[in-house]
Amino acid sequence: MRKELRIKKNQDFQAVFQKGRSFANRQFVVYSLEKEGQDAFRIGLSVSKKLGNAVTRNRIKRYIRQSIFELKDQLKQGYDYVIIARKPAAEMDMSEVKKSLTHVLKVGKVLEKDK
């Protein structure tokens, strides 16, 4: 994922947490915040140390990034998204992560219908 599509700064994360809206399922919590004057979406990932060692956490982040990359044409533009992985995400494979993320994004109405 390109660098300009990532949320890195703590203040950006905090703004999404405080002003954005959240939706969740068992595996993920997603916060979204509409940003004026921003033409693309940005993604921030949060995977706690409670989910496992560094290898496990990095694998989860890789799966989430790949899923978002595959769904990028359907995601609403001009938003900041923060995705938080929950405990069950540690045991999921790539297809399950994509299916779960698709579900939670549809719940939050930020995933547009098939283009």
Q: What would a concise description of this structure say?
A:
This protein has 115 residues and is of the alpha+beta class. It has three helices and four strands.
Which features characterize this protein?
4-stranded mixed sheet; 3 helices; 115 residues; alpha+beta; 37% helix
Task: Write the SSE topology.
Elements lengths: L9 H10 L1 E4 L3 E7 L7 E5 L7 H18 L7 E7 L8 H14 L8
Parallel strand pairs: 3-4
Antiparallel strand pairs: 1-2, 2-4
Rg calculated over all Cα atoms:
13 Å
Helical amount:
25-40%
The helix count comes to 3
User: What is the 3D form?
Assistant: globular
How many β-strand runs?
4
Q: Could you report the average pLDDT, rounded to the nearest whole number?
A: 92
How does the helix and strand content classify structurally?
Answer: alpha+beta
List unreliable stretches of 5+ residues. Answer: none
Beta content comes to 15-25%
Would you list the SSEs in sequence order as H and E? HEEEHEH
Strand order of the largest sheet: 1-2-4-3
Span from first to last CA?
A: 21 Å
The main pleated sheet reads as: 4 strands, mixed
